[in-house]
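Pipeline run #58 for the internal structure catalog. This entry was flagged by the ingest filter as a single-chain record with no existing model, so it goes straight to prediction. Upstream metadata was stripped on purpose; only the residue string is passed forward. Reviewer on rotation: M.T. Logging verbosity set to normal.
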Amino acid sequence: MVRLFEGAIRNWRFVLGFLAVSLAVWLAEFAYQFYGFSQGELVPSVLRASSLTGATFIGLSLLSSSIFKWVPRYARYWYVRRSLGVVGVFFSLVHVLLVMDSLLGWNFGLLFGTLNPFENPLIFGALALPIFVLMTLTSTDWAVQRMGFPRWKFLHRLVYPAYLFMVFHFLLVYPQALMNLAGYALIAVTMAALAGELFWFVKTVWMRKAGPVGSLSGIILIFLWLVFAYFSYVRLA
């Protein structure tokens, strides 16, 4: 157990500070929802605060990867990226548990009433969540050592399709919840993260540093983004 969390134990001051900042961000998000969008409704405020905070933190985690490439001297802060992702998944889990309990009553028939994700955006969330949880459970130095870096890296590249599913989940499930300052902040972070990913993918392919598998995977992912964006636009129009 000590070996599993030896990195966090070694950097306990950072961990505690980061958790405090994360909680402060969530509380600010909750207050904004409770006194603004939700008009004093407790459960919807907690639900939306957890959702928006989780998605924003996961987006910032991906954005930080691009920043580290643009400014290599910041790469020594890689643990910030990991912390953003882990805390983002935690808040997303809180969101999911609240949805299942307060909105669906743990009725999986309601969750999977239709498997068309553009009619039932919960399907997008259900696709993203297991990937994010698996990545969180393996986001330790101990996991890297046990799995070996190549297999660990392959697993963690699943963040890209998981992020795709997550983005279209929050865009489609309740668009009105994004029409406020908190939603605009999430959209801005999402656009910045996607722009960074696209920039570095194009540059890597252009400089012929990407292998055929990586290049093909990236092209397929971009194609899926465009297809999903089209069907989402049709549904929201």
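catalog note: The chain has one domain: 6-236.
catalog note: The chain has eleven helices and no strands.
status: ready for reviewer M.T.
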